[in-house]
Design goal:
By secondary structure, this protein is an all-alpha fold. 58% of the residues lie in helices and 0% in strands. The chain is elongated.
């Protein structure tokens, strides 16, 4: 108004506030267009996009990184890998496929991750969550493969999975651990008697 006082809208409980308190009030109310801080407004728009599962809403964001984050969130929320594929930046595409792999317990999504460490972390999470020992074969390091086979074999109490372990010492340890856990230590077969994989 002409006196320099802020105009308070009786239909808008946030209008009486000022500065960051006002922006935070609008953020909580999901009234993104009324937020003055660009960063906070972008965060608000991401939340709106997620609530509505609407990829188009992401285009209202000003920051490129936040746009990509928004797209990733929509891909995960809608379980739509095509959104990940369409991402131009490798870091975000990898993150998107990684999170889809974990949320679906699906190694196929993990296989789309280009970064080796992140791809193998994804494989490991999915393998251990699903007890699918065949996924352990995807690791580049023998130590990591053996560790994965060992953990799943022990979890399943299945000595046949132990045979996939490359190190004879670790293979024997796997069989002995299962025998001990199942109370069958007297019947502790040597892995030498196990059939080849």
């Amino acid at each position: 108004d002409l006196t320099g006082n802020a105009v308070v809208d009786p239909n808008d409980s946030c209008s009486a506030l000022s500065g960051s308190a006002k922006d935070n009030c609008y953020l909580e109310a999901k009234k993104c267009s009324k937020i003055s801080s660009v960063t906070l407004r972008d965060s608000c728009v991401v939340e709106l996009a997620k609530i509505n599962n609407d990829l188009e809403v992401c285009s209202l964001i000003q920051s490129n990184k936040t746009i990509l984050f928004c797209q990733e969130q929509i891909a995960i929320a809608t379980n739509n890998q095509r959104i990940c594929s369409d991402m131009v930046e490798g870091y975000w595409r990898d993150n998107c496929n990684y999170h889809l792999g974990l949320s679906n317990n699906n190694e196929d999504f993990c296989g789309l991750v280009i970064d080796l460490r992140q791809r193998e972390d994804c494989f490991e999470e999915v393998a251990l969550e699903t007890n699918n020992y065949k996924i352990c074969r995807y690791f580049s390091e023998d130590f990591r493969k053996d560790k994965c086979f060992y953990r799943i074999a022990v979890d399943l109490a299945d000595v046949k999975v132990c045979r996939w372990i490359g190190s004879p010492t670790n293979r024997d340890a796997c069989v002995k651990k299962i025998a001990k856990n199942t109370g069958q230590e007297e019947f502790c077969p040597s892995t030498q008697n196990l059939p080849d994989r």
